[in-house]
Amino acid sequence: MEQVSFSDNSLFFEKVEKTFLLHKKLIKKLLPEADVQHVGSTAVPNSLTKGDLDIQVRVTSEQFSISVQTLSALYELNEGSVKTDSFRAFKDDSTDPPIGVQLTIINSEFDFFWKFRDVLLINDKYRKEYDDLKRNFEGKKMHEYREAKNEFFQRIIETPEFKKL
């Protein structure tokens, strides 16, 4: 049973940023038209994080199929995640930090990771609320944390900040 643990992202910032830039360069070399974004809590200063790196790769619908093939050669398909015609999740647990890659079609239903990051950057109240949620789940079951996290982000979707993006 996987338990969740969080740390201040300042402990990971340098390593995460270096890893992000390395993988962004690699992805852009193979998918030059892709929009590659650092998302997740390590992209939001002063946040609590599990210490992993989340990358969103945004492509057009025409580029999606080849992007799935290309990213499959670089990363493992995240079998525990949703798989649709506009979204695929990949991972690499062997890197330091571990990496999650979310491939989305631009403006599709799953093209929200960058928006969540931006809302947390725009409104520190939401970032603090998210950190409080994490503190409440420290040492608890990962699936319970993920459920609470999903509820939190469902509320964020309804905010004026999110709707403007």
UniProtKB/TrEMBL annotation:
Highest taxon of source: Bacteria
Pfam family, one: GrpB
InterPro entries for this protein: GrpB/CoaE (IPR007344), NT_sf (IPR043519)
Name this polypeptide is given: GrpB family protein
Species annotation: Gottfriedia solisilvae
